[in-house]
Design brief:
The structure is a single chain. This protein has helices spanning 9-21, 27-38, 40-43, 78-88, 90-111, 166-232, 238-273, 302-307, 310-330, 353-358, 379-427; strands at 47-50, 72-76, 116-126, 136-138, 141-143, 148-162, 281-285, 293-296, 336-349, 361-372. With 437 residues, the chain is α+β, with helices and mostly antiparallel strands. The chain folds into two domains: 9-110 and 166-329 and 380-427, Outer membrane efflux proteins (OEP) (Up-down Bundle); 113-162 and 336-372, Outer membrane efflux proteins (OEP) (Single Sheet). It has a four-stranded antiparallel β-sheet. A two-stranded antiparallel sheet has the order 1-8. Helix 5 packs antiparallel against helix 6 and helix 6 runs antiparallel to helix 9. The chain is elongated, with a radius of gyration of 36 Å.
């Protein structure tokens, strides 16, 4: 199966969903493709996915129904959990819609550079109070004259020729917003999948611990019974019976705690995957996780890996958005030039609107080129600049915080990997199996 990075997050979601539906492709291969997609940025900086061993799927799995109670265990395949997460996880849906909103903002920002055209039509009946006196013009109002019915139309065009760069800054802000939203979707997809895998692994581990605790409790119960038998036959002591009884009770309490943890891990898996459970249900993991390892070909460019992480890219683009908004706020002090043109159409008749509309014909036209410079007061503009400057500082701090968090996660992951490699070497485990699709 070929491996390639998918740049469009929406296309990536659809592709992964289709891959998981194919019955011919194993869960392992689908999950490896999923992890490849969310780690494209990392792979681009010298990190490549390595085919890793998959535990034997034929081995005995933990018994899902070991804990007695009203909860009904619902077996959940890993592929099914990933499908539900890609479709229904709320934060992932929010991130997808934020990309749609950001693209709509770009369309709106482009529209500010285009001229606007409008058409207006109006019928008006004029009845003078003096019954036909002389015509008097006061400002834009006409008083006097005979009674008449008028049909008026106007076709106007307005174009924002120059706006001191506010529209340009707005467009840059909108485009940076799209990049930030896209990187945020990539980051959310990675967080969703990693959280789902962690929750699924925790549930499987809780099931295993519950099975082991149940077996231990059963064994200690047998030991307690044998201690009683030895005491009845004269070979035991009451102290041995008491010790066996105490150990059995401790094992039962441990098993009860394991059952509670099992329910909590099932709820955590439902939350991580956007799944819904009724009050009498819980999930049961049915398989071990494949364990893809990320092996750095060159441990040097750690900074490049961090900068290419979707979370850091999203924070960086948020800084670009805040910078463009700050520039847009500062340019509100500048002048603006507006060009407008209007063509009027007029028709009149003293008795009928129909006749007035029938006689409508081109009349006057106006062309205007206006220059406007705001002078006073500037309180609103100053407040907008201060707010934009604060937003820029917040975005820069958010970028620094995102970078620190990614650096910490990366260092922890590399340390954990080194520990796992050393453990494998110490135990002599050799794993070099690759399962083809």
């Amino acid at each position: 199966m070929g491996e390639r990075c998918i740049s469009d997050p929406t296309h990536a979601l659809r592709t992964l969903d289709k891959m998981l539906k194919r019955s011919a492709c194993s869960v392992t291969q689908a999950l490896q493709a999923t992890l490849l997609t969310v780690m494209c940025a990392t792979s681009a900086h010298g990190v490549a996915s390595v085919a890793t061993p998959v535990p034997d799927q034929d081995q005995d799995l933990p018994v899902a129904g070991v804990c007695a109670g009203p909860d009904l265990p619902q077996p959940l395949e890993l592929a099914e959990a990933v499908q539900h997460a890609l479709r229904n996880e709320p934060q992932l849906i929010v991130a997808q819609q934020e990309v749609v909103e950001a693209r709509s903002d770009v369309t709106a920002a482009v529209g500010s550079f285009l001229p606007t055209a409008s058409l207006s039509l109006m019928d008006e009946k004029y009845v003078p109070a003096n019954g036909g006196g002389p015509v008097i013009v006061v400002g834009n109002n006409i008083l006097g004259g005979p009674q008449t019915r008028s049909a008026y139309g106007a076709l106007s065009v307005t174009w924002n020729v120059m706006n001191s760069g506010r529209d340009v800054a707005g467009l840059h802000s909108a485009k940076a917003g799209v990049r930030a939203a896209t990187s945020g979707l990539d980051s959310q997809l990675a967080d969703t999948l990693s959280g789902l895998l962690q929750a699924y692994s925790d549930l499987y581990e809780a099931q295993s611990e519950a099975v082991h605790d149940l077996q231990a409790a059963a064994l200690l119960k047998q030991i307690y019974g044998r201690a009683q038998e030895r005491y009845r036959s004269g070979n035991g002591t009451t102290v041995a019976i008491g010790q066996a009884r105490t150990a059995e009770l401790d094992a039962e309490q441990t098993f009860n705690r394991a059952c509670r943890v099992l329910t909590e891990k099932s709820a955590a898996l439902a939350e991580a995957g956007g799944l819904r459970l009724s009050g009498q249900e819980r999930f049961a993991a049915t398989q071990l996780l494949p364990m893809p390892l990320m092996e750095a070909s060159d441990p040097g460019p750690i900074n490049a890996i961090i900068e290419g992480t979707p979370a850091v890219v999203a924070a960086k683009e948020s800084v670009q958005v805040a910078t463009a908004k700050f520039q847009q706020a500062k340019r509100s002090f500048g002048p603006s030039i507006v060009f407008s043109a209007r063509k009027d159409y007029l028709g009149q008749d003293p008795d009928s609107f129909g006749a007035a509309n029938h006689r409508i014909a081109p009349s006057d036209y106006r062309v205007n080129l206006g220059f406007e410079q705001p002078l006073f007061p500037m309180a609103t503009e100053v407040a907008a600049v201060d707010k934009a400057r604060a937003g820029l500082r917040k975005a820069q701090a958010g970028y620094d915080q995102a970078r620190l968090e990614v650096q910490t996660k990366l260092e922890n992951a590399l340390a954990a990997r080194r520990e796992a490699v050393l453990d494998n070497r110490s135990w002599g485990w050799i794993t070099s199996v690759s399962t083809p699709c």
